[in-house]
Amino acid sequence: MVKQQPKNNAQSNNQIYPPIFPDIEDWPIHKHLRNRTSFILHLEKYVFNKLSILTSKEKYDILAKTVFQERIRIKEEPWKVDPPDDVLFWSKVRKALLEVANNKESESSIEIIDAQFKLIINRYSEEIVGTFKVPTVLFARKFLRFFFNKLLNSGIWFRKLRSFGSKEYKIENRIKVIGEADQIRSLMTKGTVVMVPTHFSNIDSLFVGYSMDAILGLPSFSYGAGLNLFNSGFAAYYMNRLGAYRVDRRKKNPIYLETLKGTSKLSIEQGVNNLFFPGGTRSRSGALEDRLKMGLLGSAVEAQRDLILKGSKEKIFVFPVVLGYPFVLEAKFMIDQHLSKEGKERYIKTKDQSYSFRSICKFIWNFLSKSSDLNLTIGKPLDVIGNFVDGDGNSLDDRGNKLKIEQYFTSNNIVSADNQRDTEYTKILADKIVKRYKAENYIMSSQLVAFAGFQILKNENPGLDLYGILRLPPEDYSFSTERMHHALDQLKPKLYQLEREDKIRLSEEIKWDNEELLKHGIQKMGSYHPKQPLMIDKDYQLIVSQDFKLLFYYHNRLTGEGLENGLKLN
């Protein structure tokens, strides 16, 4: 018996929570950035003291390297958002270094070197640390709700001639929050929350932020936003006032990285809930991240350690979050970049147009008006060592016994700082987050259908490697729906087993009859792209692809689970 597709009821049971802190002035981020000047002074002192363990010669070498890299950045990769006095500032630093080049150990030289360090730390601190304005937050909240709902209802008007006021089509009904919603709300009142989502699109921050506020009732998080996003005057004006700290990925010198890491670490230590994408950038391949950046994760470990050193009982809770889209705005560009890097000269990058306002509006239009869902899966909470945490905030071992996190930072019965030990803890935490990403991965019909389709393509061309397959002319590729049913019949039991073992999450569509599942997956996957990853003819006989690279991109969301092992597709 065919299981019928439900009609627009994906969010009928999605709870809308009241705000934890109804008054925005009670939000931790507001209290934190209300004293922005004092925080910057604290940050500058912290970073300078951390770098003070270096010898005068080591400091000089770092300064010289920093000046060199910054001058290259100004010349080869300037941005509109860069300070107008960039050239003058770094020329002055260079001139100061030339004065002490031949005698770095004298008292006067040490003073000059330290003075330049302080100037640079101050410059970076002022650039990185954002502001938080309550009126801007209130405006942004109203604007986003108006923008999403009007855009949605306009799409429904033209496409389905439905009522503008229908609750069925509100944006909240399209965002499916899955997992530990009650846990994150509860633990936010018991400690500081660090949210670590997967990263696939430039709109991730937009949807996560909106979901946290409009659905879960959580206060704003401090989060890192790429400095390039501040190139637009309109975007910069609002992002500057919504608590975002600015991240310039062009800057790789130790002074900048320590200042950036210190911004995160000190804010977490002061009780500010933080959000950062530990993958560091959007997933180019479409797969879940399997390698995480240690810098910002390490800031959470260090913050917990220093809280314990101060005798504080405040605890930090880490929530892995997995985002899921039936289609991704930048998929075409992202997979081209991935293949260009992996395949070298065999691929040429295409221009990333995902930052344009027009393309984002088009994406949201398609996302909303075609009844697509965004899935936001909140994973089980962890402490900074990677142990699971219960509803009261207690750390648990593998047998469910309570642990005291202080013991991880204790040596010879004394709580102490140990950078090497903390680095190992950061690696353990990163590995646990990667595992949780897989376990919380919410599989949608489009991803399963894409995986099956690409596996059939590989099976038909056993003599070709990946790049050979992707060079095949799409117009010559077709296969029967019967073959797809055969592939789905083999894949679904494997997915059911993974779900029973709590190693994956499955959407309801995965359990539908194959015909309904296949139609749904193809429709959702191709509802945005001009060239369709998969298409099915009106007689439901043949399936074709117009873009193998896009098909490969969506296929990759299910890699790493061993699903391809033992498939018989002939």
Specify the structural class.
Answer: alpha/beta
What kind of assembly state do the chains in view correspond to? single chain
Number of helices: 19
Please outline the major beta sheet: 7 strands, mixed
**Uncertain regions spanning at least 5 consecutive residues:** 1-13, 154-167
Q: Residue share in helices? A: 40-55%
The total count of strands amounts to: 17
Q: Can you give a write-up of this model?
A:
This protein is an alpha/beta fold. 48% of the residues lie in helices and 10% in strands. The protein has helices at residues 28-33, 36-51, 56-76, 86-100, 107-128, 134-160, 181-188, 204-214, 233-239, 254-269, 294-309, 331-343, 357-369, 419-439, 445-460, 466-470, 481-500, 514-525, 548-555; strands at 175-179, 192-197, 222-226, 245-247, 274-275, 316-324, 374-378, 388-389, 395-396, 402-403, 410-411, 414-415, 442-443, 478-480, 505-506, 535-536, 542-544. The strands form five sheets. Strands 1-7-6-2-5-3-4 form a seven-stranded mixed β-sheet, with helices on both faces. Strands 8-9-10 form a three-stranded antiparallel β-sheet, with no helix packed on it. α9 links the parallel β3 and β4 (245-247).
Brief synopsis:
With 570 residues, the protein is α/β, with parallel strands linked by helices. The chain has 19 helices and 17 strands.
What's the arrangement of secondary structure elements?
Blueprint lengths: L27 H6 L2 H16 L4 H21 L9 H15 L6 H22 L5 H27 L14 E5 L1 H8 L3 E6 L6 H11 L7 E5 L6 H7 L5 E3 L6 H16 L4 E2 L18 H16 L6 E9 L6 H13 L13 H13 L4 E5 L9 E2 L5 E2 L5 E2 L6 E2 L2 E2 L3 H21 L2 E2 L1 H16 L5 H5 L7 E3 H20 L4 E2 L7 H12 L9 E2 L5 E3 L3 H8 L15
Parallel strand pairs: 1-7, 2-5, 2-6, 3-4, 3-5, 13-15
Antiparallel strand pairs: 6-7, 8-9, 9-10, 11-12, 14-17, 16-17
